[in-house]
Write a structure and sequence with these properties.
- The protein is of the alpha/beta class and 286 residues long.
- It has a single domain, classed as Isopropylmalate Dehydrogenase (3-Layer(aba) Sandwich), CATH 3.40.718.
- The chain is 47% helix and 14% strand.
- The chain has 9 helices and 8 strands.
- The chain has an 8-stranded mixed beta sheet with strand order 1-8-7-2-3-6-4-5, sandwiched between helices.
- Strand 2 and strand 3 form a beta hairpin.
- Helix 4 packs across helix 5.
- The protein is globular, with a radius of gyration of 20 Å.
Length: 286
C-alpha cells in the first residue's frame, strides 16, 4: 500500500487529438496528472502509451527543457550484432539545426554512458555516406562541432551500418530517424514473413522448420521488439518514457524497467551537469 497511490484524473487524451488541444484543454487527463507528479517530485518518472505528440508537447510545457537544450528528443534502443545502440531523434523534431544535432549528440553520449555504463560511448551522425564531404551543410556543421569536443565522435554512419555495432549513439533529425526506424521494423517483418512462407511451403519446408525451431525461437527472442520498448524523451527536467501504444505486459514491463534505470542514474541531472559545462564550450573541447 505504501508503494501504490491512485491519483484521480477525469479527462482522457485521444490518440488522434491535436497536441496543442491536449495541452490546453486536458489539464485533468491522466497524462497531464502524471507529468505534474514528476514535476512536483511525487513521482520519479512518467510512462505513457498514449498520444506521442500530446505527451511531448505536455512534457515540454510542464517540465521544460534542461538549460542549454533547445528541444527534447525521442531516444530509443535498437538491437545490433554485438548488443544494442541508442538512436535519437526518432520523430520529435523533423527539422533540426546543427546546434540541435550537436545537443542530441552530447545528450546521447551522457545517457548511454550512464545507463549502459560505457566509459566512452561512440557517437555517430546518420548520413548518406561516410565521407566527410557527404550530407547537408547542417550535418557537416554538426559533425565539426562534435569533433571539437572530448566525446568519442566517430564520424558519419549510413543506415545499413546501424545494426553493425559501429556506434553506441546514432544522432539524426526526427524525420530521418523515424524513417530509418520504420524501415528496419518493416525489413524485420518481411524477413519473418519470408521465413514462415518457406517453412510452410511443403513437406520438406515443414520438416526444416521443425528442425530449425529452437534456433528460430532464440532468434525471435533476440529481435523481439517488446524487449526494446520504451523510448526516452531526453532533454527534459524530468523522466518521461513513451511506450508503444500496442504494448503488452512484457513490452510495458520493459518501459518500466527503462524508467527505473533512468531514475536510478539521474539522467536529467547528468544532462544538466554536462550542459552547464557546455555553457563554456571550451570545457568540452578535446
Amino acid at each position: 500500500a505504501d508503494r501504490v497511490r491512485i491519483e484521480d484524473a477525469r479527462q482522457v487524451v485521444a490518440m488522434d487529438e491535436a497536441p496543442a488541444d491536449a495541452m490546453r484543454k486536458k489539464k485533468d487527463s491522466s497524462m497531464r496528472v502524471a507529468i505534474n507528479l514528476v514535476k512536483d517530485g511525487s513521482a520519479g518518472a512518467c510512462i505513457s502509451a498514449g498520444n506521442t505528440g500530446a505527451l511531448m508537447a505536455t512534457s515540454r510545457f510542464v517540465l521544460k527543457t534542461v538549460p542549454g537544450i533547445d528541444r527534447p528528443a525521442i531516444m530509443a534502443v535498437l538491437p545490433t550484432k554485438s548488443g544494442r545502440a541508442h538512436m535519437l531523434d526518432l520523430g520529435a523534431n523533423s527539422d533540426c539545426s546543427a546546434d540541435q544535432l550537436f545537443q542530441f549528440g552530447i545528450m546521447g553520449s551522457v545517457v548511454v554512458q550512464g545507463i549502459e555504463e560505457i566509459d566512452n560511448p561512440r557517437v555517430a551522425l546518420l548520413n548518406i555516406g561516410e565521407e566527410a564531404m557527404k550530407g547537408s551543410d547542417t550535418i557537416r556543421a554538426a559533425a565539426a562541432m562534435l569533433a571539437a569536443t572530448r566525446i568519442n565522435y566517430v564520424g558519419f554512419i549510413e543506415a545499413d551500418s546501424i545494426a553493425e555495432s559501429a556506434a553506441d549513439v546514432i544522432v539524426c533529425d526526427g524525420f530521418s530517424g523515424n524513417i530509418a526506424l520504420k524501415a528496419m521494423e518493416g525489413t524485420a517483418h518481411l524477413v519473418k514473413h519470408f521465413l514462415l512462407e518457406e517453412f510452410r511451403s511443403g513437406l520438406y519446408g515443414r520438416l526444416a522448420g521443425l528442425i530449425a525451431w529452437p534456433v528460430l525461437r532464440s532468434l525471435s527472442r533476440r529481435v523481439d521488439p517488446r524487449r526494446y520498448n520504451g523510448a526516452s524523451l531526453v532533454g527534459l527536467n524530468g523522466i518521461v518514457i513513451k511506450s508503444h501504444g500496442g504494448a503488452d505486459i512484457v513490452a510495458f514491463q520493459q518501459a518500466i524497467h527503462t524508467a527505473m534505470i533512468e531514475v536510478d542514474k539521474d539522467v536529467p541531472g547528468r544532462i544538466r551537469t554536462i550542459m552547464a559545462e557546455q555553457g563554456d564550450r571550451e570545457v568540452l573541447e578535446a
